[in-house]
Amino acid sequence: MRFCVAFLAATLSTAIAADSASAQRTAPAVSSATAFKMAQACIAYARAHNGAVNVSIYNERGELVHFQRMDGAPPQGPSFSSGPQYGGDPFLNGPGPVVAIPDTSPVDAVPVVINGVTVGSAQAAGMGDEGDRACAKAAADAAQAGP
Question: How far apart are CA 38 and CA 66, in angstroms?
Answer without folding.
Answer: 9
